[in-house]
Amino acid sequence: AQTVTQSQPEMSVQEAETVTLSCTYDTSENNYYLFWYKQPPSRQMILVIRQEAYKQQNATENRFSVNFQKAAKSFSLKISDSQLGDTAMYFCASAGGATNKLIFGTGTLLAVQP
Amino acid sequence: EPEVTQTPSHQVTQMGQEVILRCVPISNHLYFYWYRQILGQKVEFLVSFYNNEISEKSEIFDDQFSVERPDGSNFTLKIRSTKLEDSAMYFCASSELSRGNQPQHFGDGTRLSIL
């Protein structure tokens, strides 16, 4: 069984500063993938970044990067130079197995303050 | 960029009625999914669909739920006899392949309100 845990229900950050969102996971799959999705008030789920578990190098996408600690089963998201448009709910998710279904955490509501 | 589209954006239905939620996945995608998000809760997997059959379903996806791809374009979720607890946001997603490095693309969701 796969589980994803996000222990921060809400976070706040000042514009232009850096924030880190935490996520831990558990899985019985040998090959799995980890994702961060963003859900702004407009409600569409948008993929922010993904990480293949077999890769040791942390994924980066512009201002977004992850700290993937496989042994600790930790997958945190760092947002640098936060912008007002980053305000959203952020979901950590894992996928693996034949059907690649996504297992989501409970989400972290991030508010970027001007 | 191609998108997953869902209709309607909001559906209000009387308890006990049937409801059909529609999705048009991205055209070259082969794997289709439905997820549910009850207000204030996390997104939950309902069902995955490939090659015109269900490949996996969750405990939530009981006999009241069904999916089909009637015309090679639309992907529908039917709830036969809706209950109050079916009120939620329903998201459709599709991916090109069933591998994690082929990410799932989500639609905007359908907000289902059961009265």
Tell me the greatest interface: A-B, 27 and 28 residues
Q: How far from one another are the termini of chain A?
A: 41 Å
Radius of gyration of chain A: 14 Å
Tally of strands of chain A = 12
User: What structural class do you assign from the helix and strand content of chain B?
Assistant: mainly beta
Q: What's the mean pLDDT score of chain A? A: 92
Number of helices of chain A: 0
The low-pLDDT segments of chain B are none
- What is the oligomer described by this structure? heterodimer
| SSE string of chain B, helices as H and strands as E | EEEEEEEEEEE
Query: Which term fits the overall shape of chain A?
Result: globular
Helix content of chain B: under 10%
Distance between the termini of chain B: 37 Å
The average pLDDT score of chain B comes to 91
What percent strand of chain B?
over 45%
Order of helices and strands of chain A: EEEEEEEEEEEE
Shape call of chain B? globular
Give structural notes.
The complex is a heterodimer of chains A (about 110) and B (about 120). By secondary structure, chain A is mostly beta strands. In chain A, about 0% of the residues lie in helices and about 55% in strands. Chain A has no helices and twelve strands. Chain A has strands at about 5, 10-15, 20, 25, 30-40, 45-50, 60, 65-70, 75-80, 90-95, 100-105, 110-114. In chain A, strand 10 (about 90-95) and strand 11 (about 100-105) form a beta hairpin. Chain B is mostly beta strands. Chain B is built from no helices and eleven strands. Chain B has strands at about 5, 10-15, 20-25, 30-35, 45-50, 55, 65-70, 75-80, 90-95, 105, 110-115. In chain B, strands 2, 4, 5, 6, 9, 10 and 11 form a seven-stranded mixed beta sheet that branches. A four-stranded antiparallel beta sheet of chain B has the order 1-3-8-7, with no helix packed on it. In chain B, strand 5 (about 45-50) and strand 6 (about 55) form a beta hairpin. The chains are: A mainly beta (about 110), B mainly beta (about 120). At the A-B interface, strand 5, strand 6, strand 10 and strand 11 of A face strand 4, strand 5, strand 9 and strand 10 of B.
